[in-house]
Amino acid sequence: MTREASIAAGKAARARVPRESQRDFSPPAERDPVGLLLEQAASRIPELVPVRHGRMLLSPFTFYRGAALPMAADLAATPDSGLRVQLCGDAHLANFGVFGSPERRLVFDVNDFDETLPGPFEWDVKRLVASLVVAGRENGFTARDTHRVAVGAAATYRRAMREFAASSAMDVWYARLDAEDAIARFRSQMRKDAIKQSELALARARTRDSTQAVAKLTTVTGGQRRIISDPPLIVPVEELAAHLDVETIYGTICSLVSQYAGTLPPDRQHLLGRFELTRMARKVVGVGSVGTEAWILLMDATDGTGPLLLQAKQAQRSVLAAYAGESRYDNQGERVVSGQRLMQAASDIFLGWQRTTAPYGSQTDYYVRQLRDWKYSAPIEQMRPAVLAGYGGMCGWTLARAHARSGDRIAISAYLGSSDRFDEAIADFGATYADQTERDHATFAEAVDSGRVQAQTGV
Description:
This protein has 459 residues and is of the alpha+beta class. It has 19 helices and 13 strands.
């Protein structure tokens, strides 16, 4: 559309769905988040489901991280602006972080796209802001400080979208938040100790590369490098599949790696061709992803130089699909990769996808990337109000940039406007949903106590 038409569309959406209405949340009486989580568990590896539930049981924030499906159902019943973008689908603050770009710069961006799908832009904003409120409460913030953090993140999103609406499409596409630039951008909002803490974190991030991962996760025995066993978190396939044909499993994964290379650009295919798969192990990752298939792939260089660690992770149907519409992609791995490439300013050089058929006939979609490349996640539980406010601002700016790449940034900016009405409404929603999350966590704990939910803690 023309700029004028986009502005008109944004204002029409504002008239249809007032910004103040974005604070509304009225859960129905029949709402059953525990039931939804148990339905979701049916598609997970059975022996790992209690591990996932045990992690969710730890606190309201860890519960929130694993409860993307119940929140998707809740968001579907809230006011819908009709302004669609490529959603992260699980945009809580722990799914943002620092990683290395192909140009070897540290960038701050969204780093989890398991649930990515097109949908109303405000769904991501609400999930982000509510996560800030839940985290702030767990860190002992006052209600006033928590509200400031929530409003600040929403306001940064709105102001950033306004900047992107005034920018050219090419400038939006090239925009990114280098980690050093991020500190500079939000320096005025951060205390000196917070700035120092952030700079130390960046220094640590540069040490968290593939070499460090290889040193931590592998060992050399009898001249052969192998993955260290640490069950149930890391289990080499030889231990995991004692009753199966290990050679057949390796053949299946070798085929996966070979075929997945076809989803990479030719230069990346050439680079990947310098490595061959030698070992593999199942890995437990995150909170929400626990129970899906995730494999560490140890790739040795054919010339005898340093190895490479890849991660092949199962891609299931997005939790948003029942509420925002099915993906245009038949392969769920392609859905994840396409959404990631659209939203991220810079993606991993080995990011690709493939579907594989297991020896027993079932098909599984995967996406593949490097296991670790300067990746670093902030210690949220250690953040004080000023630090969380700065971090929330970085997340808000980053989310706006990701949405501006895929949606009508001009219409969204026109909807948001220049006042703080949207900011306050989203902050109020965040507080209301944090209340709901705390109740849901208590209900979940009761379900564990009653035996309805099986949970394994301490893992």
